[in-house]
Structures are given as structure tokens and as C-alpha cells.
Write a structure and sequence with these properties.
Mean pLDDT of chain B: 81
Largest sheet of chain B: 4 strands, mixed
Strand order of the largest sheet of chain B: 1-2-4-3
Helix content of chain A: 25-40%
Order of helices and strands of chain A: HHEEHEEHEEEH
Oligomer: heterodimer
Number of domains of chain A: 1
Number of strands of chain B: 4
Low-confidence stretches of chain A: none
Number of strands of chain A: 7
Structural class of chain B: alpha+beta
Number of helices of chain A: 5
Largest interface: A-B, 44 and 49 residues
Low-confidence stretches of chain B: 254-258, 272-278
Distance between the termini of chain A: 36 Å
Shape of chain B: elongated
Largest sheet of chain A: 7 strands, antiparallel
Order of helices and strands of chain B: HHHEHEEEHHHHHHH
Strand content of chain A: 15-25%
Distance between the termini of chain B: 15 Å
Radius of gyration of chain B: 22 Å
Structural class of chain A: alpha+beta
Number of helices of chain B: 11
Chain lengths: 193, 307
């Protein structure tokens, strides 16, 4: 933070970095071939719903936008224990274009929210994967940092750290992975995991 | 181009920078005044260096001192999972390093942030506030405290107070000078004893610095309110939290207030209340002022989008 920001006591809210989502489809293929993890067809965006009419209107617009297209996915919203809202999108996982369509949907959500000035409220995006043994790993994208990290819950308040590190090593060359392990925020109760 | 819902407050920025500039000018006045009294610029500079040095020492130890003053202890994520979880998410939203978390066991509802930089910071809450607020309101309060950390308020306030610290030390020293130095007069000053000149200059500087620092503290609080409201996107949560806390503190009996006096300036609401709260000497803006700013932010956030 610069000297002027320190003196004037004003931090600019961090702008979200939206475009890296389009790296996910090729990362999904790598995960499938190298680690046997297949996408579940879900994808979700986690954001802070602002209070007031403006945000509700924007959210309604987003939902209408997603549901209005020709090959519309299933869309629903829910809120979690921390008061954040999850907007979940589901597309058929067997469809080869499914993952690309999913990322386009998530990107549409983000850009709509950002264009209405609610970009600072975006927390993360989540794309869950599952392996044949039933373990689930979510690929989380943090908007403010512009980096990805894996999150593999293995029970209440427990993470499968080895699986997470394995996913990190698999995807290291393709995606910007969050280098600080302390930044791998746990998302307990996230939809799809 | 994405639209921004940030409500800038040019007036607040102008007032804040003016006060900071005046505090810097005050240090110069002190240096010059002392230099003239002793007819030696070196002593004036020594005083300034001493004041700044002590301020830096205070800043470096701010987290330990404040934690001890409020009798707060650090808690791990296992001990307070919800508290850590809320702070985790707020830090991810703000893209700032996560501070240490502490809890103070006292019924006075309050929260404070301290520490010399965002990398070495602590955010503390009291058990009183944990019991009093809903999860959303607590999140608003924590966002306000994290904004203090992000704005480096501890550093700014400590540096800004260096003139006052030096002047305060000189007032003490000048009184000793009167006692021991007798009537050593500087004939070039028309017979005024040196200690008197030093005493008067440092008293004036101390008084002006006191008022200016309180003013600066109020502006920083408003800036932290604003940043916290934008972080959570819920100004109404912070507003209702402030109303609960300010009401709550007035009901706490006198004897608890003395232990929080030292750290009051870093808290979300002045921990000392009901004791001659004249606006000039208050470290926090009035509740009405804070609510008014939050209402402005709320109006901007809830304005329907452009079609």
C-alpha cells in the first residue's frame, strides 16, 4: 500500500481477476489423465450478497441470464453458515463441451456482478472433481489473488492433505497455484464436495 | 468499464491530510522553539529525534502492550473455529495476510486491532462482544478492525504523536530544570529563564497536538468504518453492531472502565464513556456521524443497476 493510501486511510477494494477461469477446461483434462479425477459437472461461485435492492436485482438478472440460454444448465442459489451466497451451476458431466460451458457460465456470473459494481464481493469459484474411490477434490479459484488451490475434505473439519498436494503437483505447470499453503482457505460445507 | 460503488469522501480526505500536515508542522515548531531557547539547533533536533525514537519504540511493541493492557490472550483455530473462519474469509476478500486472533475475557463489549504492520498484527474481541452481537454484526466489527490493520493506523497514529510525546517529555524536563537550574537566564532573551521558554513552548505544542491527534483518530475511525462496510457489503450490519455496543458500554459499571483506558484509541467504540465526552477530546466520532456515513454507503450499494 502506497504512502498516499496510508495517509489518506483509503484502501481501494481489491479488484477480482476474472479471466483465469478459462484455464480450467484444459486443467480438467490433465487431472483426468494424470490423476483419474473426473469433473462432477458442478461449478459454483461464492460471493458476498450486498444488502439492498440493487444487489437482489443484479442477482435476479444473473439467474435469468443463465437460465435463458438455449442449453441452459441447472442453476440454484444457497447461503452458507458464514453468510456467503453460493450460486451453483450443473451441467451434464459426460458432455465433452460441458466443462467449457460451465466455465463460460461462471465467467458470465462474475462479469455481470462486476459490471454492476459488486466485484469486491466475489470470494471464490469452485469446480469439484471426484475419483473412482469416491474422494472429492474441489479446485478453488480465489478472485482477489488470481490463484488456484485444491481443497479435499475428508470428514468433518479434516482435509486430505496428500491428495491436495498431489493435485497441486499435477496442475502446477498449467494453472497459477497459490504458493502459500496458509492461503489454502478451507471451505467446509461447500456445495458439491 | 465496471461501475464502482465506492462513495469517495473528498472532504474527509482533505481534513485528514491537513491534520497530518499540521502535526508535522507542530514538530518543526517544537524543534525551532527549543533551538531558539537554547540558542542551539542541535538540541532542538535532539528533542525531535528523541520524540520520534520513542514513538517508534511504542509502535514496535504495540501488539504486546495492547494485548497486556486489555488482558487478551491469543486463540488458535481449534479454540475458536468460528472466529477464525470469519476472519479467514474476510482476509481472502480483502487479499490481506491473516492477523493473529485474540480474545479478552471481559464483559465490556469491544474489539480492537493492533500491531506494527499488516504482517504482524493482532485482532482481539472481548467475550462481552461475542455474547452481544449476531454473527453478521460481529463480521462487520471484524471488518472494521481489519481495515485499521490495512490502513496501518497504529503506525500513522504513533508517528503523528511524536511531536506530542517530545513536548510531553519536555514539560516534565522543564519543571526539573526550574527546580535544579535555578534562575539561569539567557540575557539575549530579555531575561527570560530558559526553562520557562521551554515549558511554554512544549505546553503549547502538547495542547495543540492533543487536539489534533483526537481529530485524526476520529477521521481514521470513519475511514475504517467505510472500508469495513465495503468489505462486507453490509453497512447495516456494522450500523446495528455500533448501536448495540455504544448502548452496552454505558451500562457497564465504573470499575471496569479503568482497565481499558490505555487501549481505547484502538477500539471500535470508546471504552471510556460517560466521563466528560466532549467532542474535542473524543477519540471516536459520534454515533450519529458514523451511522450517517454508513447510510450513505448503504444507499450507494442498494441503488438499482443501470439498465
Amino acid at each position: 500500500m502506497g504512502l498516499w493510501e496510508t495517509i489518506s486511510g483509503r484502501t481501494k477494494p481489491k479488484r477480482a481477476n476474472l479471466d483465469a477461469l478459462f484455464l480450467v477446461p484444459s486443467a480438467a483434462i490433465t487431472l483426468q489423465t494424470a490423476a483419474g479425477l473426473t469433473p462432477t459437472g458442478d461449478g459454483s461461485v461464492c460471493y458476498r450478497a450486498a444488502s439492498g435492492a440493487g444487489f437482489h436485482q443484479t442477482q435476479a438478472e444473473v439467474l435469468a441470464l443463465l437460465r435463458g440460454s438455449a442449453d441452459a444448465p441447472e442453476v440454484q442459489t444457497s447461503s452458507d453458515a458464514f453468510g456467503f451466497t453460493w450460486l451453483q451451476v450443473h451441467r451434464d458431466p459426460d458432455d465433452p463441451e460441458g466443462m467449457a460451458g460451465l466455465c463460460t457460465d461462471l465467467h458470465a456470473v462474475n462479469t455481470t456482478l462486476e459490471s454492476e459494481g459488486f466485484g469486491p464481493g466475489l470470494l471464490c469459484s469452485l469446480v469439484p472433481f471426484a475419483d473412482p474411490a469416491g474422494r472429492r477434490v474441489g479446485l478453488v479459484y480465489l478472485y482477489k489473488k488470481g490463484t488456484f488451490y485444491p481443497f479435499a475434505p475428508a470428514g468433518p473439519q479434516q482435509r486430505d492433505n496428500l491428495l491436495e498436494l498431489q493435485v497441486r503437483d499435477t496442475l502446477r505447470a498449467e494453472l497459477p497455484i497459490e504458493p502459500e499453503l496458509s492461503g489454502w482457505l478451507a471451505l467446509w460445507g461447500a456445495p458439491g464436495l | 468499464m465496471a461501475r464502482s460503488r465506492f462513495v469517495g469522501d473528498a472532504g474527509l480526505t482533505v481534513r485528514m491530510t491537513t491534520v497530518i500536515f499540521l502535526l508535522g508542522a507542530l514538530l518543526v515548531v517544537l524543534v525551532v522553539g527549543i533551538g531558539l531557547a537554547f540558542r542551539s539547533p542541535g538540541i532542538g533536533l535532539l528533542v525531535a529525534v528523541g520524540g520520534i525514537g520513542f514513538a517508534v519504540y511504542q509502535w514496535a511493541n504495540s501488539d504486546k502492550v495492547a494485548m497486556r493492557a486489555m488482558r487478551a490472550r491469543e486463540v488458535t483455530p481449534q479454540e475458536a473455529p468460528e472466529l477464525h473462519g470469519v476472519i479467514d474469509r474476510l482476509c481472502a476478500l480483502a487479499d490481506m495476510p491473516k492477523p493473529r486472533v485474540g480474545v479478552a475475557d471481559t464483559p465490556v463489549p469491544n474489539a480492537f486491532a493492533t500491531g506494527r504492520s499488516p504482517e504482524r498484527a493482532v485482532v482481539c474481541v472481548t467475550t462481552g462482544i461475542l455474547g452481544m452481537l449476531t454473527a453478521e454484526e460481529l463480521e462487520g466489527v471484524l471488518a472494521h478492525e481489519l481495515s485499521h490493520v490495512a490502513h496501518r493506523d497504529v503506525l500513522v497514529m504513533t508517528v503523528a504523536s511524536s511531536a506530542g510525546i517530545a513536548a510531553g517529555a519536555l514539560t516534565q524536563g522543564a519543571q526539573y530544570g526550574a527546580f535544579f537550574g535555578g534562575n539561569r537566564r539567557d540575557n539575549n532573551n530579555g531575561g527570560l529563564p530558559i526553562w520557562l521558554v521551554v515549558l511554554v513552548v512544549s505546553l503549547v505544542v502538547y495542547a495543540v497536538s492533543f487536539v489534533l491527534l483526537r481529530l485524526l483518530s476520529r477521521y481514521r475511525e470513519l475511514a475504517a468504518d467505510r472500508a469495513g462496510a465495503y468489505l462486507t457489503m453490509r453497512p447495516d450490519a456494522l450500523a446495528s453492531a455500533l448501536q448495540k455496543i455504544t448502548g452496552g458500554i454505558n451500562q457497564i459499571p465504573q470499575r471496569d472502565l479503568r482497565q481499558v483506558r490505555a487501549a481505547s484509541a484502538l477500539c471500535i467504540a470508546p471504552a471510556i464513556s460517560g466521563v466528560s465526552l466532549k467532542t474535542l477530546t473524543s477519540t471516536h466520532p459520534s454515533l450519529e456521524q458514523r451511522l450517517e456515513q454508513l447510510a450513505r454507503i448503504q444507499a450507494e450499494l442498494s441503488r438499482p443497476g443501470a439498465q
